[in-house]
Specification:
With 155 residues, the protein is mainly β. Helices cover 8% and strands 58% of the residues. The protein is globular, with a radius of gyration of 16 Å. The protein starts with 6 loop residues before the first strand and ends with a strand. The strands form three sheets. Strands 1, 2, 3, 4 and 5 form a five-stranded antiparallel sheet that branches. The longest helix is centred in the N-terminal third of the chain and has 12 residues.
Length: 155
C-alpha cells in the first residue's frame, strides 16, 4: 500500500465543449492553469465516441491487465480519476475510469479505464489540484509494466 497526505491547492469547475477531444482538452486546461497533478473526484458528460479498456474474447491470463480496447458510441458517462505528472516530459498523466451507458441500447452499461473520448454536447468536471507530494506514474515491470501512481517527497 502507498498512502500520503495530499496538500491540495485550487479547485476548478471545468466544462469541455461539444466536439472536443476529452484528453486534449484536459491537457490544455492543466497547461493553461498550471495544474501539474491532482484528482478528479467526479465528472459527468456525454461522448459521441470513446475507447475504453475491454475485450470481447476469452482472456489468456485473467490475472494480467487487459491491453485491448473497445469502441463505444453515443454514451452518457460518469467518471473519476487522478492526474499525475511526468517529470521528464512535463506532460500530465491522467488515469480515469468511467461508467458509460450506451444510449442506443437502453443505456446498457460499460465500466472501465477511459482511453480516448470525443465530447458530445458537454462534459462537466471538478479538478482538485494537488500541490504536494509529487504524484508520478512510473511503470512497474514486475506488474506487467502497468503505470502505478506514486507519491514522491522532496529529498
Amino acid at each position: 500500500m502507498r498512502a500520503h497526505v495530499l496538500n491540495t491547492g485550487r479547485t476548478f469547475g471545468v466544462t469541455f465543449d461539444h466536439g472536443e477531444d476529452f484528453f486534449d482538452a484536459l491537457s490544455a486546461f492543466c497547461r493553461d492553469h498550471g495544474v501539474r497533478q491532482g484528482y478528479i473526484p467526479s465528472f459527468i458528460g456525454a461522448f459521441a465516441e470513446a475507447e475504453i479498456v475491454g475485450a470481447c474474447g476469452k482472456l489468456e491470463n485473467p490475472d494480467a491487465p487487459v491491453w485491448d480496447r473497445t469502441h463505444v458510441t453515443n454514451v452518457e458517462a460518469f467518471g473519476a480519476g487522478t492526474i499525475a505528472h511526468d517529470p521528464e516530459t512535463g506532460a500530465i498523466l491522467p488515469h480515469i475510469h468511467v461508467s458509460a451507458g450506451l444510449k442506443a441500447l437502453s443505456a446498457d452499461g460499460r465500466t472501465s479505464h477511459l482511453l480516448s473520448a470525443r465530447v458530445q454536447f458537454l462534459s462537466e468536471l471538478y479538478v482538485v489540484e494537488v500541490i504536494s507530494p509529487a504524484m508520478t506514474r512510473p511503470r512497474n515491470p514486475e506488474l506487467y509494466d502497468v503505470p502505478l501512481l506514486t507519491f514522491r517527497t522532496p529529498e
